[in-house]
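Notes continue from the previous slide.

Worked example: a multi-chain complex. Inputs as given:
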Amino acid sequence: MNDKSSPRKFSRRKFVQGVSTTIIGSYVLTPGVSKISEKLEAETKEIASGKKPLNLIVNKVRYELMISPETTLAEVLRNELKLTGTKLICNHGECGGCTVLLNGEAIYSCQMLALDAGEKEVTTIEGLLTGEELHPIQKAFVEHDGLQCGYCTPGQIIAAQAILLKNSQPSKEEILTGMSGNLCRCAAYPNILKSVLAAAGYLTEGTNR
Amino acid sequence: MKNYDSYQHVRGESLFLDDLTSPEGVLHAAIFSSPIAHGLIKTIDFHEALNSSGVIAILSAKDIPGENQIGGIIPDEVLLASEKVDYIGQPIALVIADSYLNAKKASNKIKINLEKLPPIFDPREAFRNNSLIIPSRTFEIGDVERAWKSCDLIIEGTADSGGQEHLYLETQAALAYPQEGNKIKIISSTQSPTAVQRTTARILAIKMNQVEVDVTRLGGGFGGKEDQATAWAVMAALGAYKMKAPVKLVLKRNDDMRMTGKRHPYSSDFKIGLTNDLKILAYEVTFYQNAGAAADLSPAILERTLFHTTNSYFIPNVKATGISCKTNLPPNTAFRGFGGPQAMFVIESAIFKAAEKLGVDPFEIQEKNLLNEGDEFPFGQRAENCNARKTWNELKRKINFEKTKVNIRNFNQENNLIKKGFALMPICFGISFTNTLMNQANALVHIYTDGSVGISTAAVEMGQGVNHKLRQVAAELFSIDLEKVSIESTNTTRSANTSPTAASSAADLNGKALENACRIILDRIITNIARELKVDDLKRLLIKKNILLLDNKPTEFTWEKLIQKTYTDRVSLSAQAYYATPGIYFNRNINKGKAFAYHVYGTAFIETALDCLRGIYKITDVKIVHDFGKSLNPVIDKGQAEGALIQGLGWMTIEEVIYDERGKLITDTLSTYKVPDLHFTPDKVEINFLEDSENPMGIFNSKAIGEPPLMYGIGGYFAIANAIKAFKQDTNIDCKAPMTPEKVLISLYSESIKQKPLKITKES
């Protein structure tokens, strides 16, 4: 074994320091609430570690984090907030697996530095539920079997949400354009298209079936 | 019936390997791999890498306690190369650090000195150099040499099909934990838990009962995790074993594409002989399989190529030779269809070329030669319950074939720059592992005292819906709600000595084993309650919709009460059962036998519209009549058929695996390797279920679905070829797939890609 120390000698403290992000606090978003003491603490830590403070609003919960500047939004969502519905598939902005909403627009979270998402509203697949109730798009994907292995599904659903937020009655062409950046290797595409069309129907009917 | 797994998928709650909460103190691994395609390792210097930030250790071949060997069929593949490298991306060392980034950074600091050896990438060149994985094999029926004399037309040519990247969206991944008693537990994204277990034991020099492998679900497999998930799982295990700490190994997309094998490219020579009335009398074919640098599953894949030499056709005289050629590329591996699609592309190419020469449409030759009941395949099995002609005729009726033909012809007369083309594509695919011994499965069923049911089998869920199908089997046999049934992870401590989830067979094999287990428990439950109710004739008792019926009248015993009663009477509520496909055998000395439990049939109509100015095309319409048997779940099965079709179309059209002259993969990102997206998807896809098809060899009379529909995609190639010919009649279609838009454009306007002229030995 090529070992610079014996296996158990690596220090736990050093290991923890290596983790790039630290959550300072999180609370449900209520406008006007300020946490001055935590901000001061964050600034102190920033100087010490080279990390930057980040106020991130994800699924209506505000998180105050200290992160290394190079951390992407996808990494923060998955590794720090444990919102693992968002998938990292190519990490190059080529597959759509990491699609989230940023102020209502679909973006590839692997292509955005987390710091750039500061103070903006991020919505992930976990944020579509109302309590235990599925969102109409989620219902449509179940109803029309718009998935197989499920790995691309969160990204597909969020991309569909972005389309439907802009236009609740999208044309087939608008759906093709809006979703062509989301790959599904199982090629459940015919049913994905059906699901999005059905979701548009549910939303305009307002029946929330 | 909706797929039960969907509810958690749409909530983003399904936990794939990389989504699991990492255990405390987990270490991360990165691979250092060969930078050249062929060479000898002279020196490796780990010094700088070891001093890199966060690095704990670097493991190489000499750290393997057992045998440095991962070959499954043939022991010809090391886990970590130490003397010789045979392809770019071959693993040499495992860097273990506190984070993936640190491990990766350190691996870039490893210095290696190699002595280059000349590489071979072309299978025919490998053949000339006698660089083979196994000796060649030949399947034969009739006597081709004599048959040529009776042919009115004989045509020879070549047909090549390219590789295909699996691109399972979840990359190869494993997480290994050291356990007490020198044991190891591995969570792996594998289709083959037993292979991971067996190989880990071999590498670590421990017993199989010291290795536990657990699989929850895969984010796609397609064959790419049948054999090739093993190496990564074993490396994680080696790391955990040596470090005495959990080790996680998740390949990044680019590494995954670079280091793993793909669908085998094939280059083939064919010779086909017909009579004037379009009967194919003789067919001779030699398949040069590009196996890559190690055997992996290539011999088995080559064998399936030979089994599917004649697709859906009866040809009385056939000689098919398969040659597995060893080259300096990553070992190619299983991919949905497992060698079958490559064979079918060649016979369809031969028919296309013969039709061209005879001035008829390919479908005339196809139709004339379709299999009939009792026809003999070149390997000796006879076609039983043969639905080749049935699906063909039904499809022609469904699409109003005569009218469709005229419409397309009229369209082409009226349009100069957009041309339509179509093809019919029949398929015939054998179901069973061609290695007979693998056709076995076991299932473990527990009914808990609250009436809920837990099932363990070898089936790995990877999007094909097998979990839901198994849930259906148990719910139907017990006649209870689906919600009461849960499918447990696939785990080697609950399901031992299992075959991989492959060959489309998981629902059949595991479903049948599960059926047997459920019946054992059901029998015990009924026998016990009969005693209580003083009923002699057990047939008077029946569970229906969660209630025990006596003479078809409800009793006080709900399912839950019945289970409680069985438990309190000290009757076992658990059973393990077994299934082995009956009646199949194959003699490899003579290459004859009944290799398959049954065949799946179907026919597709594929239409394309080609923009003759730009070379871009769109598959506009696909209609299929497919033989699902009595489908266990039409929703899941239809999704499988559509997905396989589109994946097959991708392989034939836009997906192109390219290595450069050094053997380095150029198409190693999603921007350079194009796979079907929503835009590519045909405008219309219509899947029709063949009626009145029964299949006693399948679970509840169903037929396997995973692989067969992929081969409809081959029709896409010939539909485009026909559209090209509608634009320029004398275009020489070279029968080299994929038919990328750039290739189409060149063929429309350039003479340069023409292959050598066909050799016509006899004209009608």
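Summary box: The two ends of chain A are 60 Å apart (CA to CA). The first strand of chain A starts at residue 2 and ends at 3.
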